[in-house]
Amino acid sequence: MNFADITLEEKQVALADLRNIKEQFASRGWFPGTSGNLSVRVGDFSPDNFHFAVTSSGRDKSVHTPEDFLFVNASGEACESTKLKPSAETLIHAKIYRMTGCGAIFHVHTVFNSLLSERYGDTGFVPAQGIELIKGLGIWEENAAIQIPVLPNYADISAIAKLIPSSLQSDIPGILLRNHGIYAWGKNVFEAKRHLEAFEFIFEVEYRRLALG
Ligand SMILES: CSCCC(=O)C(=O)COP(=O)(O)O
Ligand SMILES: [Zn+2]
Q: Considering the entire predicted model, what is its pTM?
């Protein structure tokens, strides 16, 4: 599907959804220091041909401006002529879309996801069990034990993107970058938000368990 064939209405809905999520996450303090990025896919999907709206790089995500988002293709290149730069981490979004076919991806830096990603960085995953919010990830098995992948935080974003296919766990809709933050995704904005909130709750519980000893 060509970008020009995607309806204006679908593009406007994607931008409105991102604006809404941006405002909610900003109110929780989930974009400190301009960190974090958000995206929503538009149009049809095939692994080599898809498009998504993504946050512009380096902007204050606690305010709304006409320059907050732009549309990019599966290679992370702008679909329209613009002076805006897509998120520096757009290639990670593109790789997650390519591998999962999901509909929305949210990335935030929080104290709890940073601390746990470092604590379990050498292990390669954050373990979690016995937390009701694991069901928020869509895992309803009794007393499920999960492992949330942790990837190295290379400066070269394309090097991180290359590691994603071998790191994904089929039932876990997220990955951590060590000492950096989490990417969570879902089939749409609602599901990606639920997954991100569940991950953050799980990280806080696991952190406090460790702190309690
Ligand atoms: C200022 S935080 C460092 C960059 C980062 O990790 C991030 O999430 C924000 O980068 P972007 O280019 O999407 O603004
Ligand atoms: Zn980041």
A: 0.98
